[in-house]
Specification:
The protein folds into two domains: 115 residues, 3-Layer(aba) Sandwich (Rossmann fold); 73 residues, P-loop containing nucleotide triphosphate hydrolases (Rossmann fold, 3-Layer(aba) Sandwich). It is 55% helix and 12% strand. Helix 1 packs across helix 9 and helix 6 packs across helix 7. The mean pLDDT is 94. By secondary structure, it is of the alpha/beta class. A five-stranded parallel sheet has the order 2-3-1-4-5, with helices on both faces. The radius of gyration is 18 Å and the shape is globular. Pathway: Cofactor biosynthesis; coenzyme A biosynthesis; CoA from (R)-pantothenate: step 5/5.
């Protein structure tokens, strides 16, 4: 069984994912996969280098993420080219990791699960939820970013209402970490039939 896990920035996705991992559940993390498909020697990095040139690399031959971000940020054609390259590679890797999972169920942790139409890969969807004011506060503290930057990220994500509409299960992360962990344990029991 594939359980998608998502939530807006600062909602507590990582805390919930870490608790599932501590219970021995295989985690497929979209952010990790996105980094893996552009590692040294990968098809992704080779194609990016062919397209953008060697200036997109750091001295050690790895991807200069800041330079890439700068190149595609205000260029919709380059951003589209990059997405058309990376999204299929990321999807293929995630599907392989799902196939390789050995735990009773696996967690597919994807920040943009709803936006990326990846709910179709999931048997169930968990949304980690908290009020938007709390998301904003947590993300600003965690990232050291300004209110404007976090608000613009939130505006680019699915709304809280859209995420909740896609949810089979909701983890309320508006209280303590212990409260979040209790809910993870309850869902774990439900998914394992124990």
């Amino acid at each position: 069984m594939v359980v998608g896990l998502t939530g807006g920035i600062g909602s507590g996705k990582s805390a919930a994912t870490n608790k599932f991992a501590a219970l021995g559940i295989d985690i497929i993390d979209a952010d990790e996969v996105a980094r893996d498909v552009v590692t040294l020697g990968s098809e992704g990095l080779t194609r990016i280098t062919e397209h953008f040139g060697h200036a997109i690399l750091l001295e050690d031959g790895t991807l200069n993420r800041a330079a890439l971000r700068e190149r595609v940020f205000n260029n919709s054609e380059e951003k589209q080219w990059l997405n058309q390259l990376l999204h299929p590679l990321i999807r293929k890797t995630m599907l392989q990791q799902i196939a390789d999972a050995t735990s009773h169920y696996c967690i597919l942790s994807v920040p943009l699960l709803v936006e990326g139409n990846l709910t179709e890969l999931c048997d169930r969807v968990i949304v980690v939820d908290c009020p938007e004011s709390m998301q904003l506060e947590r993300a600003m503290q965690r990232d050291g970013s300004t209110k404007q930057i976090i608000e613009s990220i939130m505006a680019s994500q699915a709304t809280r209402k859209e995420r909740l509409a896609a949810a089979d299960d909701v983890i309320d992360n508006s209280k303590t970490l212990a409260f979040l962990n209790e809910q993870v344990l309850t869902l774990h029991s439900k998914y394992t039939g124990q």
